[in-house]
Prior knowledge:
Keywords: Membrane, Methyltransferase, Transferase, Transmembrane, Transmembrane helix. The protein is of the alpha/beta class.
Amino acid sequence: MKREDLKTRLFHPERKWFLAAAITGLLVGAVLISGSIRDTDNPLFCSLASYKTRAASSYDPTPIQLKAIVHYATSRTVPQQNLAEISISLEVLKSKAPCNFLVFGLGHDSLMWESLNPRGKTLFLEEDPTWVQTVLKGAPFLRAHHVPYRTHLSEADDLRNTYRSEPNCSPNKAYLRGNEKCKLALTGMPDEVYDTEWDLIMIDAPRGYFAEAPGRMGAIFSAAVMARHRKGSGVTHVFLHDMDRRVEKMFAEEFLCRKYRVNYAGRLWHFEIPSAANVSRGVEDNSVRFC
Length: 291
């Protein structure tokens, strides 16, 4: 997603060229498709939900889509996710009406995610305030916020084993804003995050490859809480990257639930999490487990 992986992962030139070409083609195809649709019953992008009432000019490529095409066509830096992984999220974006898309992480794929959700709300959350400033200097049109974390990767096992003893971490009582008693709850996010019902949540940050890193425990837990609190219809789509790592897999199975996993590719898992209001009541009301 960002600078730490660019320093630690080596890309073969052939792979970088192929992925850059594939991303550019994907974006060009998206623009051409959105420009040619007139009367069809299948929405192809978030912004096409009300296509029948829009003028033809509304299908013109957005400035961000055009910037993305030029960027990925000319840049030597490519998104960390591979084409198969990106395609899973794209298929959901193509099927949703104006999307609220929350992304944990800010980096070289952010322009791509922004361009694939034209006229929707895409918000990026980043652990490093300096990195936020660096990225926004080159892409000031992105919406990004710094978010502090209260955890360290070295605490992952203890957090998983002890969260059930804190009532404010339990499935039927957990909340985020102001929940200081539950260390897994992200309490330092902007009000906009808490006040928005997110259709898609991408977790590809914070860092989680060394002991003092924040790890993704809090992001995974918080995504599960937001999904369970959904009041609108449908499910919340959660995408979790780096599923080859032990902590990501352990917390995904604890909070996002393997039974809700609907797709995967490479190191990306896709979950469709229903609102707690739409899950059969009974035993779950007194449960200390999310899954």
